[in-house]
């Protein structure tokens, strides 16, 4: 059985027809190339090259060996390179989900930036309804998802915060809160809050309440909705209220819903999430592209910091 270094020496010398250039390409000495070829010729029993003081040429046996072995070796090396590329994660298909139109716009920009750096990797973007984000990740439907933080699920990595926005409360347009300049977290003790399925990420937009619930207060759970449009329909119908990010005013303007700012609630944060076991190089590269896009486009004071990715562990 031929060794790899013997095959490489023969094929390179057959191409270069010069021992010095062959040695340079293989990063070995000229003497080593000469010894390798001589050893190979002894094993085969015939000369593979005709050598003179002025030139090196393939012998008849050498040409036959090259014709039969060259294409096969080319296929082997190509397959090896494809395996390396797959391991590095920079080829193939990257599937990214988003939750809401604002997130979709951010992903389009991130995908454009990613493709410019890694044109050999295809990016496919698809919209997910609120309860679908984590199931899609766990079922392998997508590789990453852009959604609200925090996502506190075992084995799920949360990337850097990409967007921060003010928190608001969606209320029926005829509700007393709609006439106020702002509401407080404590006001939630006086209203019913629309619910989402437990499969949804535990995020500021999707939580039962903003993070600081009133001391001694309780939140009255309202009806459940499967999609964000269903949430707003329930809110508009007077079935309850719901905490949202400020972008909702632009993308979900409705005649039956008013958006009132919180005066004391933490901002809504958005970022990418993925499974720890699916953290390929292309996943990490896409996260870096998204963060770079946000940092390049945002004014310096409002840029998100560069925290490290975090994975939730334990039972």
UniProtKB/TrEMBL annotation:
Annotated region (Disordered), positions in chain: 196-222
A GO-annotated cellular component: protein-DNA complex
Keywords from the named record: DNA-binding, Transcription, Transcription regulation
Gene3D superfamilies named in the record: Periplasmic binding protein-like II (3.40.190.10), Winged helix-like DNA-binding domain superfamily/Winged helix DNA-binding domain (1.10.10.10)
Record domain HTH lysR-type: where: 1-59
GO MF: DNA binding; DNA-binding transcription factor activity
PANTHER family: HCA OPERON TRANSCRIPTIONAL ACTIVATOR HCAR, TRANSCRIPTIONAL DUAL REGULATOR HCAR-RELATED
Family (UniProt): Belongs to the LysR transcriptional regulatory family.
Protein name from the UniProt record: LysR family transcriptional regulator
Protein's organism: Streptomyces adustus
